[in-house]
C-alpha cells in the first residue's frame, strides 16, 4: 500500500500541473464523500443499538406481565449480560468512528501539505493559483462543518455536528448546541 502511494506521488509530481490539480480535486472530493458518510454510519450504529434496547425493553415488559412471580432483581440479573454486550458493542462502534475520523483528519492534513507544495510550483500561473485558493476555502468550510461541532456538556469533547451522542462519553448531546 505504501509503495503504491509512493508510486502515485511520483506520478503525481511528474504530471502536468492541470492533471495534478484535477487529481488532487478528485481525491479531495472522494475523501469528503467518505467524511459525509461518517455521521450517517454513526447514526445507523446508534439506531441499531436503540432498536436492540427497545426490543429488550419490550421483552422485559412482556416478562413482567406474563410472569408476575419473577422479581425485578431477577429480570435485571438475567438481562445484565446482554446489556453489557450492547454497551461493549457501542463502545467498539464509537472507537471505530473515532479511528475513521482520525484517519480522515490525517489524510486531510496530508492533502493540505500536498496542496501547499503544489502552490509553490504554480506562482507563474495566476488562474491556477486562484482556483486552488477557492478550492481550499471550500474544503476548509466543509471540514469545519463536519469536524467542529457540538461540545459535550459532560466531558467538553468536541463532536461532529451531526452526532447525537458524545463520541467520548456516550452522553446524548443537546440539540441546541
Describe this structure in words.
The protein has 177 residues and is mostly helical. The chain has one domain. The protein is built from four helices and two strands, in the order ααααββ. A two-stranded antiparallel sheet has the order 1-2. α2 runs antiparallel to α3 and α2 packs parallel to α4. The chain is elongated, with a radius of gyration of 24 Å. The mean pLDDT is 77.
Low-confidence stretches: none
Please indicate the count of domains: 1
Shape: elongated
Radius of gyration: 24 Å
Please bin the fraction of helical residues: over 70%
- The string of secondary-structure elements, in order, is HHHHEE
Strand order of the largest sheet: 1-2
What's the total count of β strands?
Answer: 2
Mean pLDDT: 77
> Main sheet, how many strands, which sense, barrel?
2 strands, antiparallel
Structural classification: mainly alpha
The number of helical runs is 4
Strand content: under 5%
The end-to-end distance, rounded to whole angstroms, is 40 Å
Amino acid at each position: 500500500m505504501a509503495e503504491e502511494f509512493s508510486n502515485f506521488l511520483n506520478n503525481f509530481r511528474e504530471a502536468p500541473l492541470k492533471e495534478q490539480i484535477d487529481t488532487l480535486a478528485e481525491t479531495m472530493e472522494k475523501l469528503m464523500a467518505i467524511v459525509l458518510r461518517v455521521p450517517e454510519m454513526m447514526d445507523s450504529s446508534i439506531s441499531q443499538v436503540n432498536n436492540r434496547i427497545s426490543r429488550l425493553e419490550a421483552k422485559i415488559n412482556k416478562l413482567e406481565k406474563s410472569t408476575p412471580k419473577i422479581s425485578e432483581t431477577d429480570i435485571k440479573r438475567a438481562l445484565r449480560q446482554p446489556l453489557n454486550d450492547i454497551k461493549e458493542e457501542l463502545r467498539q462502534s464509537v472507537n471505530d468512528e473515532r479511528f475513521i475520523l482520525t484517519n480522515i483528519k490525517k489524510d486531510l492534513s496530508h492533502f493540505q501539505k500536498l496542496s501547499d507544495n503544489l502552490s509553490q510550483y504554480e506562482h507563474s500561473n495566476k488562474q491556477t493559483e486562484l482556483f486552488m485558493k477557492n478550492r481550499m476555502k471550500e474544503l476548509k468550510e466543509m471540514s469545519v462543518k463536519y469536524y467542529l461541532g457540538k461540545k459535550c456538556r459532560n466531558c467538553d469533547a468536541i463532536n461532529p455536528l451531526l452526532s447525537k451522542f458524545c463520541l467520548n462519553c456516550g452522553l446524548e448531546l443537546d440539540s441546541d448546541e
